Amino acid sequence: MKTAIKGGKVVTPLEVFEQADVLIEDSAIVAVGPGVAAGEHCETIDAAGHVIAPGFVDIHVHGSAGHDTMDGTREAIEGMADHFVKHGVASFLPTTLTMAAEDIMAAIRAVHECQQNPVAGAQPLGVHLEGPYIDSAKKGAQPVQHVRTAADLDYQGFFSLGNVRMISLAPEIDDNRALIGYARTRGAAVAVGHSSASFEQVVEAVRLGVNQSTHTFNQMEAIHHRKPGAVGAALMLDDIYAQFIADGVHLHPAIVKMIVRLKGPERATLITDAIRGAGMPDGEYELGGQPVTVKDGAVRLKDGTLAGSTLTMDRGVRNIAAFSGAPLRECIQMATLTPARSIGVANRKGSLEPGKDADIVLLSPDLQVVATIVMGKIAYRA
Asked: What is the per-residue pLDDT for 113?
């Protein structure tokens, strides 16, 4: 069965058509461009006055709508997927915390089950392991009692189902270095995160296979004019995709603009780092067994430490536009094609091209989500 999304401003994001169509057959994109649906006998979605863009790809997100990846259940992933699709997300990486091995494995199994038997809404692409192999001095909101090195080899179990797409770790710790190559040979991206690594140590880690920085600037060595630190490495090394949280809380708008300017849309990667309190009222929630408070869009531990966010991907795109002044094509690329490339799924996700999965978001002129299509089916309509 064919479906035509007709007459909208198509942002692929590799190119922009001011008035064009996207033709879908079953779960795949068949054609993109002006008039490609002319004469086709198919279901039609009128997109006149709207932006047609790839579905957003969130590669770093812990939870939302009262659910968390670490709940370790299909119900949790389903609840997250339902919330995300309302904000234009078509695919995502449920992200774990620094916890006991059995709790991490429960989360990995739950995600795997949802990959094998797809949920409604946004689709999990695999798992992002954030920790547990981090630097306790840069733990942020990660539970310190579970911080460890990779020396005990429990990570081999984490990779046993083949669905770990990314792992964030502290590469300056000797016992963690062997894990970099191990992860890369199993198809996972590796990010420097929650780390005290120096500039030089990140350079060495990139040689070993690190290709990302986790929530750039947050919980890593800052820039000093004689010590560029991990932040300097993330900004200056072309091999690194720089994840950033554009919520106006984790980073000053000028810092978002700097990341976008220095990395460009090909390497700047929007993430939400959202927790179970995202999409919920202000109040008390839980993260890794710790109480956190959501107030005015910020999430904090009792000591004031930031503990994830309540950001959504659509709001993140709007914020990038407002903070950086980047053109629409670039703002969308940082939420779609760039994260897809960073975890090795750009052959099927992240752009509107023939043969790719029909993951599509319709946006109003002010970038509010009108509808989200996942694998060729309407998963959400405002």
From this structure: 98
Task: Give me the pLDDT at residue 172, please.
Answer: 98
| Tokens standing for residue 74 | 């299909």
State the pLDDT at residue 313: 98
If one counts the domains in the chain, the total is: 2
Find tokens 């190119």 and name the residue.
Answer: 15
Residue 128 domain-assigned (yes or no): yes
Same domain, 89 and 181: yes
Residues 6+ apart with CB under 8 A from 281: 294
CB atoms within 10 A of CB 42: 15
Give the tokens for residue 318: 């709007």
Q: Do the strands 67-68 and 241-245 form a parallel or antiparallel pair, or are they unpaired?
A: unpaired
Q: So what's the pLDDT on residue 273? A: 98
Q: Is 273 a catalytic residue?
A: yes
Q: Can you name the residues that pair with 123 across neighbouring β-strands?
A: 91
322 has a pLDDT exceeding 90: yes
Looking at the structure, tell me whether residues 113 and 260 fall in a common domain.
Answer: yes
The catalytic position among 82, 273, 314, 357 is 273
| Pairing assessment for the beta strands 43-46 and 164-169 based on DSSP bridges | unpaired
Q: Look up residue 311 and give its DSSP letter.
A: -
Query: Alpha-carbon distance 179 to 200, whole Å?
Result: 19
Residue 31 counted as domain residue: yes
Tokens of 101: 């091995």
**What is the per-residue pLDDT across 221-255, written as a single tens digit (0 to 9) for each?**
999 999 999 999 999 999 999 999 999 999 999 99
**Burial (Cβ within 10 Å: 0-12, 13-18, ≥19) of residue 81:** buried
276-305 mean pLDDT? 96
Instruction: Give buried/exposed letters for 307-318 (b at 16+ CB in 10 A, else e).
Output: bbbbbbbbbbbb
> What's the one-letter identity of residue 354?
P
| Alpha helices (runs of H) in 63-198, residue ranges in sequence order | 74-85, 101-116, 155-158, 177-185
Tell whether 311 is covered by a domain.
Answer: yes
